Amino acid sequence: MAGDLDIKPPRAARIGISFGIVLLHLALLYGLMRAFAPDFTAATVDKALSAFTVTITTPPPPPPAKTAPDPAPDEGRAGAEGRKAEARETAAPKAKIPIQTEPAPPVASTGTDNVSGAHDTGAGRGADGVGTGPGSGRGGGGRGGMAVRGVEKIAGDINSAKDYPKATRERRIGHSVTVQMTVGIDGEVRDCRVTQPSPDSEADAITCRLATQRFRFRPAMDAAGNPVPGKYAWRQRWFY
């Protein structure tokens, strides 16, 4: 009838209602399947979800910050200027000249077995002497023995021409005389005899007398270290 009202809903509304009914049926069907066949439902859902692959791309990490390289060593720079060489004056070393020192003259009161005393000079007169003490003797009183160390003169001299006898001094004939003395264990002269006389007998006598008075000795020693008498020869030169 022309006069009837058209009460059909619009097209959009009808589509929405139809879609809602479909969804309702699907929900009921899913509920029934979950209730009676849960394994089938889970497998179906997994297959449905696996059909959709979602690729998530993460942005690449930012590149590391660039650092300035260490400066290269300055290889071309010249080194510090060296010290200027200076020529040094050279000279040959001075040769060392050895200084020879003359020995001091012997003191009149000292001497050795070989040389003793000094000599006096003046108006052509002088006197000196030399002695040796290798002689040996035998002691007495139970203490004697062969000497292993000779007599050693330690004091006394005849070293002045004034000791020569005045009566014959000017004639100058008693040039030298040799005497031999026996030295006791106390170091004193016990005996003196002329072994090589001079032309002047007075010079011989005064030589033995002065030697006995003035000379003192270290006595000879035997192997046991005991003093023993010994011999000592002395040659006196009055003029030279």
Automatic annotation (TrEMBL):
InterPro entries the record matches: TonB/TolA_C, TonB_C
Keyword Membrane tagged: yes
Residue intervals of the TonB C-terminal domain: 161-232
Subcellular location: Membrane
TM regions (residue ranges): 12-33
Biased composition (Gly residues): 123-144
One Pfam family per UniProt: TonB_C
UniProt keywords, alphabetically: Membrane, Transmembrane, Transmembrane helix
Main localization category: membrane
Repeat listed as a keyword: no
Gene3D superfamilies noted in UniProt: 3.30.1150.10
A Gene Ontology BP annotation from the UniProt entry: transmembrane transport
Bilayer topology: Single-pass membrane protein
GO CC entries: membrane
Residue numbers spanned by region Disordered: 55-144
Ranges of compositional bias, category Basic and acidic residues: 74-91
Family annotation (NCBIfam families): tonB_Cterm (TIGR01352)
Name used for this protein in its record: TonB C-terminal domain-containing protein
Organism name: Caenibius tardaugens NBRC 16725
